[in-house]
Automatic annotation (TrEMBL):
This is Sugar transporter. It comes from the Bacteria. The lineage of its organism: Bacteria, Bacillati, Actinomycetota, Actinomycetes, Kitasatosporales. The keyword Signal applies. Transmembrane segments: none annotated. Pfam families: SBP_bac_1 (PF01547). Gene3D superfamilies: Periplasmic binding protein-like II. It comes from Streptomyces alfalfae. Keywords: Signal, Sugar transport, Transport. Belongs to the bacterial solute-binding protein 1 family.
Amino acid sequence: MPLALALSSTVLLGGCRLLPGGEDRRTVTVWLMKGSASPEFVERFTEGFEKEHDDISLDIRVQEWNGITTKVKKALKSSDGAGPEVIEVGNTQVAQYVEQGGLYDLTLESARDFGMDDWLPGLAEPGRYDGAQYGIPWYAANRVVIYNKDLFAKAGITRPPRTRAEWLAATQKLNTGGDQGIYLAGQDWYTLAGFIWDEGGDLATETKESSGDWRGSLHTPAALRGMDFYQRLQALGRGPRDADEEHPPQAGVFAKGDVAQIIAVPGAARLIEEKNPALKGKLGYFPVPGKKADEPGAVFTGGSDFVVPERSDDHKGAVAVIEALQGKKWQTDLARTMDYVPNKAKLAPAVSGQEGAAAMAAGAANGRATPNSPRWAAVEADNPIKGYMSAVLMGGDPAAEARKASDRITKELGVGSM
């Protein structure tokens, strides 16, 4: 849900707000990203926080994702005290900001005040760098399976599959006549990552001998097993082998009514129903199945963390804001308002009444993030994983293609050819 370009509850006078009666409040500036929270949530939080903290006024400013990396890096270098005290960043962006320098170490507060042991790993791990916690988890979102209830009923499937084996069998049963068992594009590499993690592999690994020495690992036996499962699942539909899930947008394909399943965030259901109102009430959700019935499959966890600039002149105020936003009260409110996953698995019951969010929360308990290298963005910029996937799906030798992709990942992460 889009936010206004700027939301502020403060009137700034010389850097602080002057309240009736002559009481001064200091201002804490918070950057939130567009779409992360509704205006109504921001208003509720601001009012509630200021009631509980009579010495702080909040100045919440909404930022566009486009160009935000440059803007954050500039803010971290600022020494004039005019920058924000709290910044929302994508969970996988934290490492690059740490490497640049300028982030405040929040390890002590995380252990003492924030309950870090309960955080979702897919949010907590990217916020940790070289043994210190710089990013504080705010919210998570991850993929689930969205399915057409009518097509499941037509195929005689009475409950969603809970294991990979059940999932393949059900999808094969659904893939009949003019119906597709699943629409899975050939380059949906986030989904592939989950299958690789389930097998005990990874996209890249950091060597034990040298911190910061990352090497591509798509060629390992575990990663190849993940690709093999992806290949078998992808074949049970007519997804393109040489394109990702946005070319064409998979929600539009699903909306035609002849696709039984897609793998997407629950919010895609809104787009599907907008394109085909006849599907309203006919969509279901379940976590991506894992190898065992009692453990959902691993999924990439997207979402946001909070960071604090080292050069901020109000670390205490910044910590107070983060402590509130990452705490139970406002986590519950945000999750219910935005259909997000709370930052702690034990808070998942907050969305138990929302089918899509509940499926997402179940999967998030086994969530992961991309390799925590500050140079991972370079890999995604010209993503060799996508080319590798297409090559395999079009008949290439998996081991040979994986080795080539691993070499490219290693080169991008700054080590050189394997």
